[in-house]
Structures are given as structure tokens and as C-alpha cells.
Amino acid sequence: MMNTLSIRDLCCLFCCPPFPSRIAAKLAFLPPEPTYSLHASDIVTPSNGTIGQKESSLLTKKAPSDSNTSIRYTIIFSEKAEWQHSQSDISKLEPYFVTTSRHNRIACLYIKCTSTPKYYILFSHGNAVDLGQMASFFIVLGTRLQCNIFSYDYSGYGASQGKPSERNMYADIEATYNSIKQRYHIPESKIILYGQSIGTVPTIDLASRHSECCIACILHSPLTSGMRVAFPDTKRTWCCDAFPSIDKIHRIRSIVLIIHGTEDDVIDVSHGFALYNRVHMQHQIEPLWVDGAGHNDIEAHGQYVERLLRLINVDIPQIHLKNQQTEHQQLSTSPSTPPTLASTLIIPASTTNGTN
């Protein structure tokens, strides 16, 4: 059992000293060979207008500052991207770059599935894929949910600079999130954070540090921590652990939807159970335990889209209603009478869907 290992054993196992970044590199990051590239089609500046294509290519090589120059990019897919849509669908894809606080220039993609989106989903994808492999899925998902989607490649993935690391992941999602608000002026009340597999790590970190950054948080096949994945008997967070989401999730102050397959052989469903139990009770909503689903096939089950639609069309509106009722009760409370606790609408939470 993990709890019987000595510190010396841990150091030997993870190549002394056991830095979390080294564990993360060993256990998590498998960036694929890039399946796309981004090409600057034109450059627009406030003073000079459109710059010619030749100068555009030169500026692209010099990696201009994101804040000083507005650059339009075109995404070019390789055969490995498995692009499944028509050429006209490329017009729905708006790629761009942002620079993170750790000075990595990372690729972002805005998928415009509808002209009247209900919400905007910031999607942090799983391991061993990049934006080129996910683009087709984003169009299908966003169209079905009537939401537009933002996504990004972690440092060292796809067209993003740098090396994959835990700290870079946190900086990557922060920079992308800031671009959604500053570049597209989208309010927090219209943003849904979505993390899949390792993508739940930066998702939980961002939501736990910024209490009002989103209206909802979706965790798809989440992990509690790196050590708990590698050693299922681990009962505590070690100093050398990576991705300690189990110690952050209780600080999230938006509703949290957890989706996990009961037959997941990569990240056991027990991780989903453990994280669900650590979500603040007021922010728990009914999770989805997909009976018989593994790690990479949840999307093929009908309950998946049904649950996401219920989140958008039922759960989130109920939260708005609850907030309005609370505000109304606070305003109607007489100053001369003792304040009463506003009734709290808690959506029934169940862990019996599929497995117990």
C-alpha cells in the first residue's frame, strides 16, 4: 500500500528529489505530433490597416505581441487531425494566440457554432490530443448544446510553445480565460468551464482561485491527484504529489457537474466519487455515472448530451431563480425584525445512476 512507503522509497521511485513537475511529466503529458498549423492570413493594426501577405509572413516568424497586433490566422489540418466537416465549417473556427504569464505563446481556438449562444464553454481537453483532433468534436458538441466553445492547447501541445508542465497548465488556462473576457468581452455569468481527464486539473485550479469566474463547472473523467492515479491505495496528498485537485475542489463556488464512466480503467470512477463528495453541498448537482463507459467513450452514450442539456436548460436556470429569490428575501426583510435565513434550493444529488 502507498501509505507504507517511506520517504526514501518515494524519492527512489520518482528520481530524487521528487518534484511534482517530474511526477507530472512521468504520469501525464503525452503531447501528440501536431495535427494542425496556424497560418497568418492578414495583420490589422490600428494605425496602418492591413499589412501585405509577405510582411505578414515575416511578422509571424517574429511572433509579434498579442496585445499590439491583431492577427487573423487560418487553421490548416493534417491527415492525422481526422477533420470530419466541410470546408465551409472552417469559417466557424477562429484561431489565435495568447501569451501566458510564463511567457509561452499558446494556440487558442474559438468555435462559433451559433450566432445566438446560450453560453460559452471553455474546454480543457484530455491528454494525447490537440486542437486539430478535437475541432470536429467541438463543432458537433457546440451545435447540439447551442453554445460556442473556446479551447486551447497546453504548452508543448499542437502549435503552442514551451514544455508541458503543471505550472504551465495553470498559466495556459488563465491566459485563455482572460482572452475570453478581454478579447470577446464575455461576462462570467455566460462562461462554463469544462475539463476532460487531465483537463480537469487546470479547470479545477482556475475555478478554485476565482470564486465567480463561471456559472458552472463540468468535470469529465476527473482525477483526484497524480499519486492517487498511479497508486490507488493512496489516502493522503504527499508533498511530491502533482495535480492535487482533491484539495482544491471544495473552494469552487459555482455548480459542479461530474461525469465519469463506471468502467474507466485509466482514472477509476472512485476519483469521481471522491471529488463529488468534496464539492460544497450548496454547489452539488446530480452527477452522471455512465454505466459501462470507459475513459474515452462517454461521449458515445446518449446520457452524455442529455445531462449536458439538462445542465444548461434546467440546472443553471434554477440557480438563477434561487439567487433571485434570495435577493428578494433580503430586500423584503424589515430592518426592525431579526433577519431570517433565506431558503436554499438544493438540487437533489444522486450517486446511484449506474453504480453505487
TrEMBL record:
<dbReference type="GO" id="GO:0005886">
    <property type="term" value="C:plasma membrane"/>
</dbReference>
<keyword id="KW-0378">Hydrolase</keyword>
<dbReference type="InterPro" id="IPR029058">
    <property type="entry name" value="AB_hydrolase_fold"/>
</dbReference>
<comment type="similarity">
    <text>Belongs to the AB hydrolase superfamily. ABHD17 family.</text>
</comment>
<protein>
    <recommendedName>
        <fullName>palmitoyl-protein hydrolase</fullName>
        <ecNumber>3.1.2.22</ecNumber>
    </recommendedName>
</protein>
<dbReference type="InterPro" id="IPR022742">
    <property type="entry name" value="Hydrolase_4"/>
</dbReference>
<feature type="region of interest" description="Disordered">
    <location>
        <begin position="325"/>
        <end position="356"/>
    </location>
</feature>
<feature type="domain" description="Serine aminopeptidase S33">
    <location>
        <begin position="117"/>
        <end position="225"/>
    </location>
</feature>
<keyword id="KW-0472">Membrane</keyword>
<keyword id="KW-0564">Palmitate</keyword>
<keyword id="KW-1003">Cell membrane</keyword>
<dbReference type="GO" id="GO:0008474">
    <property type="term" value="F:palmitoyl-(protein) hydrolase activity"/>
</dbReference>
<feature type="compositionally biased region" description="Low complexity">
    <location>
        <begin position="331"/>
        <end position="345"/>
    </location>
</feature>
<keyword id="KW-0449">Lipoprotein</keyword>
<dbReference type="GO" id="GO:0010008">
    <property type="term" value="C:endosome membrane"/>
</dbReference>
<dbReference type="Pfam" id="PF12146">
    <property type="entry name" value="Hydrolase_4"/>
</dbReference>
